[in-house]
Amino acid sequence: MSELRNYIDEINQQNKKVLSIYLTSGFPNKEGFVDLALSVFDSGADIIELGVPFSDPLADGSVIQQSSHAALENGVTLEDVFNYASEIKKQTDKKLVLMSYLNPVTNYGIDNFVSAFKENKLSGLILPDLPIDEYGEDFKEQFDDLGITFLTTPTSSDERIKQIDELSTGFVYCVSVAGITGTRNEFGNDILPYLEKTYKLINKNKMLIGFGISKPEHIEQFKNICDGFIVGSAVIYLLKSDHSIFELIRKLSSACD
């Protein structure tokens, strides 16, 4: 059982769902990012997903795309992200997950990436553009003990969901809706059968729901059919607008109890 799965399980055993907050590394400013991340933890996040800025983030909606562009304009690199992780981990035992696309990882060099990942005490890895059909042949040997996480979608077949569960070593990222990231006002009950089915099919890992989760009501709606939640666009939107994110995180955290 992976370190990350153990961590999620320990929180679940306290009758709580896990709250994972996505932050674009180095956004809204490069210098204050470590303090921002620590304040996010202090406000109730259990996990922070450190997004690596990338010029073509296909799975992300406009809010996260804009934050990624701004971080790149600020000169934020994968090396900076590892440095952020190192500084954050000096001050907390809570877990950090790295979310990147394949291009920055391969440009960094796979061996160098794996070494830096472990050295800087990251606990999980999400690569949304890594096809699971290519994973075993090209990357499994290097990434298997990094807490690799794959994504299910509403179009995933039962067999594909089982395959994703088998290959993931961090958790399974259940994408709530087809399409890209972004906030939603509400979710229709039509997605409940997909979420319930996916949760029943996942036996090896914990399942966190993401994409569109943006307010406590969403957590209340789905908290019985998952092990936790991932919130990204709603947080980045507030950061982009110079609004405080901490009240929102506190409310989301309370809903996870």
Structural commentary:
- With 257 residues, the protein is α/β, with parallel strands linked by helices.
- The chain has a single domain (3-255), classed as TIM Barrel, CATH 3.20.20.70.
- 46% of the residues lie in helices and 14% in strands.
- It contains 13 helices and 8 strands.
- Strand 1 (18-24), helix 2 and strand 2 (47-51) form a beta-alpha-beta unit.
- Helix 11 (216-222) packs parallel to helix 13 (246-255).
- The protein starts with a helix and ends with a helix.
- 45% of the residues are buried.
What's the Cα radius of gyration? 17 Å
Question: From the helix content, strand content and strand pairing, which structural class follows?
Answer: alpha/beta
Let me know the average pLDDT: 93
Tally of helical runs: 13
Question: Any idea of the CATH class?
Answer: Alpha Beta
Q: Give the quaternary arrangement of the chains.
A: single chain
CATH architecture: Alpha-Beta Barrel
Structural domains: how many: 1
Helix fraction? 40-55%
Tell me the series of helices and strands, N- to C-terminal.
HEHEHHEHHEHHEHEHEHEHH
CATH topology: TIM Barrel
Count all strands and give the number: 8
